[in-house]
Design a protein that fits this description.
281 residues; alpha/beta; Metallo-beta-lactamase, Chain A; eight-stranded mixed beta sheet; five-stranded mixed beta sheet; 7 helices; 24% helix
Length: 281
Amino acid sequence: MKTARQCILLLVVATFLSACVNSPDTEPPLRLYVMDCGSLRFDDVTSFGLTNDETPVREMFVPCYLVDHPDGQLLWDAGLDPAIVGQGDVELQPGALMRYDRSVIDQLADIGYSPADIDLIALSHLHFDHAGAANYFPVARLLIQDTEYRAGFLNYADNPIFNYDYYRELADNPRLILEGDHDVFGDGRVRIMSTPGHTPGHQVLFLDLEETGPLVLSGDLYHFRFSRTHHRVPVFNTSAEQTLESMDRVEAFLAETGATFWIEHDSELAKTLKLAPSFYD
């Protein structure tokens, strides 16, 4: 039987441990899940601002990401259209193929989430391979740059780089229109950076992960490692000048913060990544 002194001591220890766990200096966990949301293959990569001799790479990884923050869940990029899941190689256009083996919906279920559980959705931009499953998240709050919203939602008929059918359901979602950088949860650990040029309101995502360290997800700032090394701009970008300015801005940010940089479409990088339900924290 414990003495009064032992009981008091146990109470003091329990109070101390509780204070440590709930200390304002101890941040709640932040996790990043990477999901395989398809692949693309191109026989000819000249439209990306390269010659076919400058890189042997022809296949692109198409990821989706779930950012699991104590204050909510953010889906970053929505991959290819789940309608092509399980169909094998599907022709996008002559010389270009798409493939998608398992939908983002099923991969989210592996983590324990349904589309209705996702609080926020932010797409690096509205191209088909980043917005393909957007319609499956009709209750998530959309975080989008004003320039991208105007081009992709209000004036999509004048912008053939966008296919409104892939994300039309988001038109009725609650939304936050951004005009530049945005601290998603207000604690500096998940930040959207405005990087226009590839599309009018292209954006990248910065994460400050405790174990993994600072990380930037590229969107389509670059498609290939060669593109990054030589600052090549795809011919279909909306502004080459803005693209180069955005590249310079992000490279300066990486140098300043020491953040790791993931080219989202990098198929060699993809082979090294932990996929959901594993995570980075």
